[in-house]
Design brief:
Two copies of one chain form a homodimer.
Chain A lengths: L14 H9 L5 E5 L3 E7 L7 E5 L17 E22 L6 E8 L2 H5 L16 E6 L4 E4 L4 E12 L4 E14 L14 H17 L14 E2 H12 L5 H12 L11 E3 L5 E2 L5 H18 L2 H19 L27 H21 L5 H19 E2 L4 E2 L9 H10 L4 H15 L8 H13 L3 H17 L35 H9 L4
Antiparallel strand pairs in A: 1-9, 2-3, 2-4, 4-7, 4-8, 4-9, 5-6, 5-8, 10-11, 11-12, 13-14
């Protein structure tokens, strides 16, 4: 995806909305985690990412008896993935300390991040995301309390140097985990299928670890609020932690900082203060309406609807400017659509479906608001739907096509199901055909797109196939040892990194947390 | 030299003395240094250490207009060497900051420390002394205030990564220099010889930068109080800054923590609290008496003499246990003598001379103290001197010999001169012979030994040769661009590192500060 670099974009700043966002800021909950074992990170080509964490010969309960010199290393295992801050006490043994202590710390979601730490960095994203620190301590004993927040399961401390006359000893390692919610708030599911129960549990942990000051996309990398991710996180949150304030806060952040034209940023920053990014994605902008709709469904919060309905309306109006008189969407290069990371398929029809999906939700909000303009949107919807049915649905193949070359791809079918462009029976048949012709899914690397495929299966009545995909996709990550679900996963190439570096992959990423929503909504009927 | 690793040594702890040491702690003076130019560190084989700092195309006054991205670097030049702390303001330009900033900072006394920073470390000392930091800043703008103290002239900031969407800008770089004295306290000399005036100025700056909470050996590396260095620093201090309290503090630190047998450590640590090192050097122990003597000469401080005379006496007694009935010293492997770093010459005769040197000073103190034991020491002195004259002075060559193989080396001659074993005429002839046969000096890498050679020249009446050596040795460092004098320098191999790594060399080292003492005492007669 091309990121805009235009810094001349003019944004509005609705201070009343931003104040409401601040007022809804969650009080973080802290939990002290004491590592439960020491591990060694061992090269193992049989493991997915080439490394395994095996129990160290050194026992955790004897920690204070071990001393470490130049090039020696210890690795704490927190037992599962956490987000928070680390501290440890250090002292020297031997002769008086005749040189500083110099250590490297590596915080790793997966063993590969420790294993590859000293390889030259080949990743496409900023190397600054790698969770490593180099620390000098001039005098010992000392308590090392790192200021920065990390997302990790493993904490490696490599001693770069002491001196030949003394070594370093460690004690009292602590990880203060943080989140705006607690795991104990949510009851584990009992679906009767242990694999699904486990997938639900990992989903919950993923969501939990991403629920911080805002809904973050990944607590290791990016650490910010994206509209597309927010929509899925909010849905999973309603089905589980049910934290109203955090969704409200995020809605007001987006609603408080559109461009002067009313375009909504694809993501916002909240540090050092609230800042909208200059990245705009067509589908993500539409999801503002979608998130407001879902939120209102959940909480019937009139005040928020009254505040943010005009923002949604303007963004819908802007999106509709790209629709021609026949009801067909024409994407603008300056306002790309996301749908999925993959760039090698035509996204026009998917984008048309997302527009219909959001417009339907908007019309429901317009009804609640008794907006006198509602008929205009209803007319637009009718036009969009019929254009989709008549011009994008291929009568011969019974599949949706996309773009001038009438490409058939899986995203178009799934989004058209989610948009409800066909009647229920048509949706069922469409997904039957999709399963027959386009499954198994290939070339999709994001749990984000897999979510939409899976929800389309559930929604169209293909429950068995939906459960199979849950297991084949999220279950495969569990099989590979995921404590939380990953930003990127391609079952046909499971060690894929979209960034040319496994170390920079995010192994706890919000948009992968939706199985808890899908399981609880479609299998347990907790709607 | 072999360092002892025996941690079972029992030390005394005279809290009254340590409290007096604390009470004499200097109030550090702070000076804000704003870098005066930006430089580039350029590879240049014609330069002594292979690199040169040349003025950057970027102008310091335009600093805030430059922005830096991945792998870009800027280097501040403070104009000369300083010891202290660094701060700089940072901000981002471009799109909102979508990744942390990751920078490396290098604090360098010499350009080579920046030039070689990413070479694999091959040095013999702990790599932890290299003055570099890796810093992540999650949000900008920020003020970066580093906690640690550095010794440097150059501060390099290398941007490891920003992101393609933004860059970093720097402003308000500041170096808060610290010392227990100020350069303005001392008048520059006017010898009539600009080269000597410059050597004196560089000596003063060296001493100034080493005068911190204690007299440090090197503010970049080791950063602690050594007895041998203290003796020379105190002498230079009397001739210049004349800070009584700092010498007093250091005397009480050594005097307050001997072993239970009365042996005085070669060095002490003062952080995290006062700790004697488990390293003992025969000559350094003797210098405790020497320092006390010089201090009393300077200030006639009765209280300190009363307190510390017994400590000196015990240490002299201990040293004398190694002298046989004929007045010859027999060194003990467990208590090595330093004299110089070089290990390839016999040090027995030098050690005998140091003993005589210190014993003479002790007897003067004993006279002041009217110690009834004085005659015992006088007898020992007579024995030591006559054994030296009769058994160590070779009548044929008119030079002192050392060890069973009757080795002739420069250290023996010079220390025998300083100890005054021969009458003045004998000393003159001895040094005439030494100059003829053993000059130019070879194989000596320490300004410490060069000091003793030079003082022996002055003391024996070879003023012209002494001035020549000042210029050939310390003047050569000035010629090579020294802002402060170095820990190690061998004129015949000027890029020598005793540690197999120029980056770990200390380029501001206390024991090289003595020209200011030699010039002011022997050339200007400020005794």
């Amino acid at each position: 995806m091309e990121f805009q670099n235009d810094t001349a974009i003019q944004f509005e700043r609705n201070q009343k909305f931003l104040d409401k966002a601040t007022a809804s800021k969650p009080k973080l909950q802290y939990d002290t985690i004491v590592p439960n074992r020491l591990v060694k990170i061992v090269k193992d080509e049989a493991k997915l990412f080439g490394y395994e964490a095996v129990t160290d010969d050194k026992a955790m309960q004897d920690l204070t008896t071990y001393s470490f010199g130049r090039n020696e290393q210890l690795v704490f295992d927190l037992g599962t993935h956490y987000v928070g801050k680390f501290s440890v006490d250090l002292t020297s043994v031997g002769a008086p300390m005749d040189a500083p202590l110099y250590i490297q710390l590596i915080f790793a979601e997966q063993p590969v991040e420790i294993g590859d730490v000293n390889k030259p960095y080949t990743g496409l994203l900023s190397q600054s995301w790698l969770q490593e620190e180099y620390i000098h301590l001039d005098t010992l004993p000392a308590k090392l309390e790192l200021d920065r927040r990390y997302a990790c399961r493993y904490v490696a401390i490599k001693v770069i140097d002491t001196s030949p006359k003394w070594q370093v000893q460690f004690s009292n390692p602590k990880f203060i985990a943080e989140s705006s919610v607690t795991m104990t708030q949510v009851k584990p599911v009992k679906t009767g299928d242990l694999e699904l129960d486990k997938i639900d549990a990992v989903s919950l942990k993923t969501l939990h670890d991403c629920m911080q000051d805002v809904f973050e996309d990944g607590p290791k990398r990016d650490r910010r609020l994206w509209l597309g991710d927010l929509r899925l996180q909010a849905l999973a949150n309603y089905a589980s932690f049910d934290n109203q304030q955090l969704v409200k806060r995020c809605l007001y952040l987006f609603g408080g900082m559109p461009t002067v034209d009313g375009k909504i940023s694809a993501n916002v920053f909240t540090k050092p203060h609230d800042i909208p990014d200059n990245t705009f994605l067509y589908d993500y902008s539409l999801f503002f309406t979608s998130i407001l709709f879902d939120y209102y469904q959940q909480y019937q919060d009139q005040e928020t609807l009254i505040d943010l309905y005009p923002v949604a309306k303007t963004s819908i109006d802007l999106a509709l400017t790209l629709v021609d008189s026949q009801g067909l969407l024409h994407l603008d290069k300056g306002w790309p659509v996301f749908i999925d990371w993959a760039q090698d398929f035509d996204k026009t029809t998917s984008a048309q479906a997302v527009l219909i999906y959001a417009l339907k939700q908007f019309i429901e909000l317009a009804q609640i608001k008794t907006d006198p303009d509602i008929s205009k949107y209803q007319a637009q919807l009718t036009l969009l739907v019929s254009a989709s049915q008549e011009q994008l649905f291929d009568k011969a193949t019974r599949l949706f096509v996309s773009g001038p070359e009438r490409q058939v791809n899986i995203a178009s079918q799934c989004w058209m199901v989610l948009a409800g462009v066909l009647p229920d029976a048509g949706n069922y048949q469409l997904m039957t055909k999709t399963i027959a012709e386009l499954f198994p899914v290939k070339g999709v690397a994001t749990p984000y797109m897999y979510h939409h495929i899976d929800e389309a299966l559930f929604k169209s009545g293909h429950k068995e196939e939906a459960v199979k995909l849950l297991k084949d996709y999220w279950g495969a990550m569990v099989h590979y040892g995921a404590d939380t679900f990953w930003e990127a996963f391609k079952p046909e190439q499971p060690d894929f990194s979209p960034y040319n570096s496994l170390a920079i992959n995010s192994f706890c990423h919000a948009w992968s947390c939706t199985p808890t929503y899908l399981i609880r909504k479609y299998l347990l009927g907790n709607d």
